[in-house]
Design brief:
- The structure holds two protein chains of two kinds.
- By secondary structure, chain A is an alpha/beta fold.
- In chain A, about 45% of the residues lie in helices and about 10% in strands.
- In chain A, β3, α7 and β4 form a beta-alpha-beta unit.
- Chain B has eleven helices and 14 strands.
- The chains are: A alpha/beta, B alpha/beta.
- At the A-B interface, β2, α6 and α7 of A face α3, α4 and α5 of B.
Chain lengths: ~350, ~325
């Protein structure tokens, strides 16, 4: 419970904000997942969910202040939600509607909300890391104390883009925090099958040593533990101390993505790869028992921040919000096809 | 008013002027500004001018990020082939962000790279690989052939709100030319008719423009007047000027240092066949590099590349003064 003491700086409103954002992300992802049955065919292509990573996402973003910026991967629904992006516009984007956040040009993998500091994503593993590093270079030049968070997965840390970016960020002392959400799987490959550090039984945060920056491993299922680590890393970045690599250990509660199938075959979310590929149902069920959302709820009730009725009321309010988001997305018009040739060039 | 400058210095002048004009212009890359007396470093300081490691993915990717955050980076990449190790950032990141965001973000950046060092640099530093970037949605491609265009196209590239690949030819590096003083912009998508002529249109790019002009002089002595057009930017491509010229001459020869099937001449040939077939009085001829890697040894290198003799032969074929070979 050390994180409780460390997180003493968070007041009740902030704790409730964290819980509410975690619930919003969970509910949003549940609704996206449910769409494959509720509105079959409405969501096309590949969709990647953040359920299981809510504590890591919100605990990280809680360490930011206005003007800071965030870049992430194709598993990107959680960040803009917590940064304040309209859930209706997000869901409509995922439904490919003209009212979508990006007008239906981007879809699930390519959400952008510059006004709220969410500069964008790359759908290619690891390739968003240099973008965040460049935004941090811009922040350094601008000299207004902005910090950039770069979110990516454990798989990305084997990309050249990771190595090249961390080297430059450390060399130039850029105001960036690299948040590696380690869910222990890249698609259907376990980390110990493809990562030398994991195979050697070491945390992936040891990679930071090669770039002469701090590397920290944290329980990504505990938003206060994440906040605690991120607050220090963000402060270090803001004060000119340079980047930090934070390995946030999470468990993705859905499969890597929905089933990819040719038209005519209904898309759906399969079970997690621990079950479907490795036959390890117990691993998955243990992860469910440690689900960060009910875990944080229980903690807030236990320490008196919320009572059960208040927690239920938040859940009801979040449910209502996401129901409205789905209805808005479903009822919104599709784009005019000829829109497709707009925005090729600025 | 103008002054004489080598091609490469004209590019530097444009970068310098744009950096003076706009504090958001950055200049970084490999092997620049490594000493305290570097002129860019002394003029603009270490925030805006930085040497990077040999890390093309990070260099180009960071340019994307800095551009998203409001700056206008110029990345010094030295050689066009070095972009290949970072291809995702060039053709799948920088060019797509504006589109995928539904127009919410812009990625103004310039990738400056030399190409075509066909002076014994062998297989991996001699390619004319600009064709790979033409037809990539969201990318613009500039290919200056003169010192003045080098300056004017670079200034325009820096002010453009899109990612621009600016390819300068290594064999033109020290070619001198008259360059307009002060602010000078060459618009993108506007071809330059370098020599008027009524009998045949020659469209040439980059280093091939001077070869085409020399060939045109030789042909003129034999009574054939060739119009020589330099598109100057390949994306956007000024097909209108080319079609209008073909409308006057009825004949088209395309000269391009790229491999035949990776060339922009193939694109121009297709556009003219599509939109201007009725204007043609003879088949279109392409004078390109052969579909091979550039070899090291000089006679083999020369064999692969387009030259004046090959251009003259192709022109004589389309005007009916030479037998048509199976392939130029």
């Amino acid at each position: 419970m050390s994180s409780e003491a460390n997180a003493a700086g968070l007041d009740r409103d902030r704790l409730i904000w964290i819980y509410t954002q975690m619930l919003r992300i969970r509910e949003f992802e549940e609704r996206v997942k449910g769409t494959f049955e509720e509105h079959p065919g409405a969501i096309r292509g590949h969709t990647h969910l953040a359920d299981g990573a809510e504590a890591s996402i919100v605990g990280s973003l809680a360490a930011l202040r206005d003007g800071d910026q965030v870049l992430a991967t194709y598993r990107c629904h959680g960040y803009p939600l917590a940064l304040g992006t309209d859930s209706k516009a997000m869901m409509a984007e995922i439904y490919g509607k003209s009212t979508g956040l990006c007008g239906g040009f981007g879809g699930s993998m390519h959400l952008v909300d510059v006004e709220r500091g969410f500069l964008g994503t790359s759908g290619i593993v690891g390739q968003g890391i240099p973008h965040a590093t460049g935004a941090a270079y811009a922040a350094q030049i601008r000299g207004k104390g902005q910090v950039v968070l770069s979110f990516f997965g454990d798989g990305a840390s084997k990309q050249g883009a990771f190595a090249e970016s961390l080297n430059i960020a450390s060399l130039w002392k850029l105001p960036v925090v690299y948040v590696m959400e380690n869910n222990n799987y890249n698609v259907v490959t376990r980390s110990d099958q493809e990562d030398a550090n994991a195979a050697a039984g070491e945390p992936l945060a040891v990679k930071a040593k090669a770039y002469s920056m701090p590397g920290v491993t944290v329980d990504g299922g505990d938003p206060l533990a994440v906040y605690d680590v991120m607050r220090d890393a963000v402060e270090r970045a803001r004060s000119g101390g340079g980047p930090t690599l934070v390995e946030s250990k999470v468990y993705r509660l859905s499969a890597h993505g929905n089933i990819i199938a040719p038209p005519g075959v209904p898309l759906h979310y399969p079970e997690h790869e621990a079950i479907t590929v490795f036959g390890n149902r117990e691993e998955y069920e243990a992860a469910l028992r440690g689900d960060p959302v009910p875990r944080f709820r229980a903690r807030l009730i236990e320490d008196g921040t919320l009572d059960a009725a208040q927690a239920d009321a938040i859940a009801e309010q979040v449910h209502t919000e996401m129901q409205a988001a789905v209805e808005f997305a479903w009822e919104s018009p599709l784009p005019d096809p000829s829109e497709a040739v707009n925005h090729v060039y600025a | 008013m103008s002054h004489e400058l080598p091609y490469i210095a004209a590019i530097g002048e444009a970068i310098q002027l744009e950096m003076e004009r706009d504090p958001t212009v950055l200049y970084f890359g490999q092997n620049i500004a490594t000493t305290d007396d570097d002129p860019f470093l002394t003029a603009f300081g270490p925030d805006r001018v930085r040497v990077t490691p040999i890390s093309e993915t990070a260099e180009i990717g960071m340019a994307v990020g800095a551009a998203l955050a409001g700056y206008r980076p110029v990345v010094e990449l030295y050689m066009a082939e070095f972009m290949l190790v970072a291809m995702d950032q060039v053709v799948n990141e920088a060019n797509r962000f504006h589109y995928m965001s539904g127009g919410k973000v812009r990625v103004p950046l310039v990738l400056k790279a030399g190409y075509g060092f066909t002076a014994g640099w062998a297989g991996q530093h001699t390619g004319s690989i600009y064709g790979m970037f033409v037809g990539v949605p969201g990318l613009k491609v500039a290919l200056p052939a003169t010192a003045a265009d080098a300056k004017g196209l670079m200034a325009t590239a820096i002010r453009d709100d899109n990612p621009v690949c600016f390819f300068h030819h290594y064999l033109l590096t020290l070619e001198h030319g008259e360059v307009p003083d002060g602010e000078y912009l060459v618009p993108f998508g506007v071809a330059d008719i370098r020599r008027p002529g009524k009998d045949v249109t020659i469209v040439a790019t980059g280093w091939c423009v001077d070869r085409a002009l020399n060939a045109a002089e030789r042909l003129s002595a034999e009574g054939i007047e060739a119009e020589v057009i330099d598109p100057r930017t390949l994306a956007p491509l000024d097909t209108r000027t080319i079609l209008e010229s073909v409308g006057r001459t009825g004949r088209l020869v395309l000269v391009d240092q790229s491999t035949r099937h990776g060339s922009v001449s193939a694109v121009i040939a297709a556009e003219v066949a599509d939109e201007g077939f009725g204007l043609l009085r003879a088949p279109i001829k392409q004078v390109t590099a052969l579909d091979a890697t550039i070899p090291y040894s000089e006679p083999m290198e020369a064999y692969i590349l387009p030259d004046e003799d090959k251009i003259v032969t192709a022109v004589k074929q389309v005007v009916g003064q030479a037998p048509v070979a199976a392939k130029t």
